[in-house]
Amino acid sequence: MQKGSIRVQTENIFPIIKKFLYSEHDIFLRELISNAVDATQKLKTLASIGEAKGELGDMSITVSLDPAAKTITISDKGVGMTAGEVDKYINQVAFSGAEEFLNKYKGQNENNIIGHFGLGFYSSFMVSNQVEIVTKSFKNEEAVRWECDGSPEYILEETTKEQRGTDIVLHINEESTEFLDAGRINTVLKKFCRFLPVPIFFEGNQVNNPVPAWTRKPSELTAQDYQDFYKELYPYNEPPLFWIHLNVDYPFNLTGILYFPKIKQSFEIQKDKIQLYSNQVFVTDEVKDIVPEFLMLLQGVIDSPDIPLNVSRSYLQGDPNVKKINNHITKKVADKLEEIFNSNRSEFEEKWENLGLFVKYGMMTDDKFLEKANRFHIMQDAVSGSFYTLEEYKTATESLQKNNEGKQVIIYATDTVQQDAFIKAAVDKGYRVVKLETIVDAAFINQMEMKWNDVHFIRVDADIADNLIDKQESSASVLTNEQEDQLKKLFEHQPAGLHMTVEMKGLSPEAPPVVATRPEFMRRMKDMAAVSGPMGSFYASMPDEVTLTVNGNHPIYQQILSQKDAGQQEKMTRNLADLALLSQGLLKGAALTEFIARSVNLMDSRGESNISNS
Fold it and tell me: Which residues are involved in binding ATP (predicted)?
């Protein structure tokens, strides 16, 4: 029997490893099973080049739980270790057996080796007060047993073991008894080990899929295979819109499948749905450094052994490969969207309600994506339902919708029901109105006005239809100057919470008598303030700006001005103003109650007048 002290390569590293190596203690199971996978893969490699003789037989890994004995055992049937190898790889902390193996058999091993750090085994001491290793090498040397209680002292002795491979026995400490629950172990296995490349069994059940879809060639997979894998990842989700299979081996290694999920208008943004793997070992679902921010709403898996990780494999580190991978994913997504748009535009348009969020978010945040997306970003007509690219919209509106600065004006609606009257008025002028009604559109409009420098957006209810493109002089009014002044005074009432401006116009007699509009700039500021929290409190606290455009050519004003009762004139003009405010959703609370009461009173008084005249 050999006794000794573990030879650490940095003074006092052992207690640090034991307590603080990993941010989450459940990661010990991932590290130990990863080591078992490595041992299995090494044996397959050695057998393939003739260095390991005989039948390999069952190569599965087993996790066993004994709550009574307070132990967890991880057993593999891989290469095993000789006494010398235990001394070399276990007793010298941070000397990585996987790293040495990779160097020795570089170019020969077809099976991926997971470990690179040499510290994974010691994660076992985060949850154990004693750890045993019982191992027998494929070289048929005597089996050995190693034991350590979490101090630098260890025992290494010969023992008996019939089968090739290694058993790691963890004697769970009092602080970690949660891991003696089968349900807890099963959860950890599903989290970290569900796609490891060697079959893993727990309580008689296989807990992993060793050949997940992303490890296979796209040519081998059907649409149903991709759908089934999505269901495996997200069993309660609706089927995805489509997917992108990543498969790159130069200048970096990257595989994976990214899915575009269905996203409704009323949704909560749920990020961290893409899982990062390294050689099928789960690493993290925080992939913001690898995946462009605008694609964080995608779902699926990315696997790359070239993404650098720190010693605990828990956090990404800065590296040129990460940026290259980020750029590659952006390009692949843009290429896929453009391919669908060009090959099956009708399908693309059908999915736009869900796709638009990704595309607009990407156009705002990534200029390389914007460059490509300009060709497949589409806008839906608020009336016909047809779609335009930016260039198609420009062509369709070239003659009518350029302002006095020469910019193309995109007229848009955010609520086709509430803004119906404004849309009809604009369409009657020959204008094209598009729908921009998602939660990102307010920010999208502001960004695109900067990025598309020859375009200006204006909401359909930002002004009367005559003024949407260029401010025009008032048309001739049938009212005298004195009558206009009298009407203007009747309309100059300031409702609570509003800052209202009144202007007189001579519009068509068929146009509404009063139109309420909200100036584009201030409305945008208020909209942005509503979603920007405390930063937007200045604009959010300001009263709503509204302009009342009074159409002096509407015949109702001849009737109002002929009224002898000044009170009746005021009631009628106030009602017309309130109707206009109501169309903008700006008549609320006490003002709305007053409007209803006034309307009833006006109907009663007109009824009495009609009776007396009969």
Answer: 31, 35, 76, 81, 96-97, 166, 313
Q: How many residues does the chain have?
A: 614
Which position has the token pair 């970690």? 176
525 is in an annotated binding site: no
Q: What is the dotted CATH code of the domain comprising 213-343?
A: 3.30.230.80
Q: pTM value?
A: 0.73
Does residue 166 have a known ligand-binding role? yes
> Where exactly does CATH 1.20.120.790 map onto the chain?
481-613
Look up residue 521 and give its two tokens: 């700039």
Q: Residues 66-112: pLDDT tens digits?
A: 999 999 999 999 999 999 999 888 877 544 444 554 566 555 544 44
DSSP 178: G
Angle between helices 566-583 and 589-613 (to 10 degrees): 130
Q: Does 97 count as an annotated binding residue?
A: yes
Query: What pLDDT shows up at residue 237?
Result: 87
Strands (E), 271-322: 274-278, 281-284, 299-303
Phi, psi of 513 (to 5 degrees): -70, -35
Q: Are 133 and 86 in contact (CB under 8 A)?
A: yes
Q: How much is the pLDDT for 264?
A: 59
CA-to-CA distance for 377 and 363, rounded, in angstroms?
9
Rounded to a whole number of angstroms, the distance between the first and last alpha carbons of the chain is: 123
Determine whether the annotation assigns residue 1 to a binding site: no
327 is in an annotated binding site: no
Where are the domain boundaries for CATH 3.30.230.80 in the chain? Answer: 213-343
pLDDT of residue 269: 53
In this predicted model, what pLDDT tens digit does every residue of 401-458 receive, in sequence order? 988 888 999 999 999 998 998 899 999 989 999 999 888 888 899 899 999 989 999 9
Taking the CA atoms of the chain, what radius of gyration do you get in angstroms? 36
**Residue 410 φ/ψ, nearest 5 degrees:** -100, 115
Flag whether 225 is marked binding: no
Q: Is 523 annotated as a binding residue?
A: no
DSSP string, 10-60: STTHHHHHHHHS-SSTTHHHHHHHHHHHHHHHHHHHHHHTTSS-S------
* pLDDT value for 287: 81
Which segments in the chain show pLDDT lower than 50?
9-12, 20, 94-98, 101, 109-118, 266-268, 310-314, 535-536, 607-614
What is the architecture of the domain spanning 377-467? 3-Layer(aba) Sandwich (3.40)
- CATH class of the structural domain 2-206: alpha beta
DSSP string, 106-162: TTT--S-----SS-GGGGGGGTEEEEEEEEE-TT-PPPEEEEE-SSSEEEEEE---S
Residues of the chain with CATH 3.40.50.11260: 377-467
| Class of domain 481-613 as given by CATH | mainly alpha
